[in-house]
Amino acid sequence: MEGSAIKVNRSKTGRDFTLTVANLTFAYLKDPVLKGVDFTLEKGAVGLLGPNGSGKTTLLRCLLGQVPLKSGQVKVMGYDMAAQARLARSGLGWMPERGGIIPGMSGVGLVAYLGELSGMPARDAMQRAHEVLHYVGLADERYRKCDDYSQGMKQRLKLAQSLVHDPEWLFLDEPTSGLDPRGRISILELIRDLAWNKDMGVILSTHLLADVEAVCKEILVLRNGELLSRQVIDSKVREPRQVFEVEGFGDEEGFLAGLKEMGAEVVADGRLHLVTLDLARLTGESATEVAEQGFDTAAGVNAILGVATANDYALRRLRRRPVSLADEFYRMVEA
Amino acid sequence: MPVYDRGYTHWEPSGNRAWPAWWVIAKRGIAEPIKRRWLLVLLLFGFIPAIVKGGIIYFKLKAGDIVDLLGGGWSSIEPEGFLTFIEGQRFFVFVFLAIVGAGLIATDRRDNGLSLYFSRPLDLNSYIGGKALVVIFYYCLITLLPAYVLCLFSYVIAPEATGLDLLLLTPLRVTAYCLLTGGSLSLVLLAMSSLGTRSIFVMVWWTIMVSGTETVGAIAEGLGKGSFQAVNFLGNYHNAGSLLFGGSPRLDLNPWISLLIVVGWTVAAIMVLRSRIRPVEVVS
User: What residue ranges define each of the domains in chain A, with the CATH number in brackets?
Assistant: First the structure.
């Protein structure tokens, strides 16, 4: 049994806030749930996307050091989670999808209790509990038993308990699960405020793409335990592949053949043609370079205009179709 | 600036002392049952045997041997008499521990609380230690505390008849016995609690463990099969206690065998606890 409480290092200077996962493979029983996952994260808001059963929650549990790590390495803020998870956890906040409430306790009692368990002095924990409950909008309900809370209030309470010890990283597992639209927006606003204005690292695990788009600057996509993709969420630099809606009249066959010659994919959509251009191929740059520099829509427009002019095809419509995160996500996981 | 104007602020530690996690868990676990009034009433009932024994001791010390005939072992202020007193508390031990301890881990498992605990900087030993302290506290409250009071009471009313043994050696024996027994019982009860997710089932198993095995032991004794008394769960603790307090064994069984059985239960409980308490429930 430990002899004394964990000493919490609150100093922000000179500390390593990086989160590194190297070749992580994990299995609860026989079949691996995570297979060779590799990434490094600096502080910021990161979305963890993936279909059900893709290993999102397991990955978060590995980051928390809640499961025995046998293959690969997880380092959080400089601590090796296979051996030093306890030390790292004083700087980590965890909002579980299921449970996360200890029945019989008042809201403020629960948050203060978990604050004390995080290594805070009893007085500090109680004061912080009041503060974070104010912050999440439960000030008036803090003395009520948490068993009687509505689903939305429980989610807020879970967020409050994960914040009480002022963690550096916040791991949120489906934080908007079971919330009505208004509750969902308000929770997302809180998370966004923490990540964007309060310098807190946030990993948001969800299958709701809109939640990720609202909060995160970057996404990690998991499928069947493998890290499928890592992308910056920004319509400008998201993907080298761009889709254009094209409609016109004239030598349609020649125009379509010209586009295909250029390497474009063309799909008919009613009267429209959906032309997908790969900018990397068009400009001869690598996908990474394109992603770093950003995508210039003009290059795609000019290329299509060039083919249309060469084939006497008069364009009635030429418009870039915005690619939503959902489109990309489904394209990736269904590929 | 008022709290409600500030939004989220970072925590600035005050420099006050933080308590170890096991103490935080124990503190809450001890405070929780006290909120139930009926439990306090039951606790008062648990003190009645001590009051009765105190009365008998008083009359014995004042009225002489005649009370021995009425009180039997209860009037004894020899160490063995205190073991008899603790043994007599077994009904309250059974009831109190069931109420206080059955849900300690089962409830956490049911509500996915383990995941919450182990997202904090505490280890398995702290968690088990904190929970065990809750059970030990209530066990000692109905055994150790009245025994101390009785020792002191006996010495105060007749210091010349009791001697310093009653102030020093007997309390030491009682302390050692209660802490060891309480520790072992707490681990066994917590192990049972970790096997289920509903307190009521744990209580049923605890009843079988305590009352059921005592009944079987009594039947075995009636049939003259002394070795079968080894199944008497609480009886083994009292029988092993006779090694510490002296006097005749409580069961028709070598006290050393009882001690081995108690150690076996304790080791098994620790193994169960270590394998069952995990932040992640794996369904195979």
Answer: 19-232 (3.40.50.300), 241-334 (3.30.70)
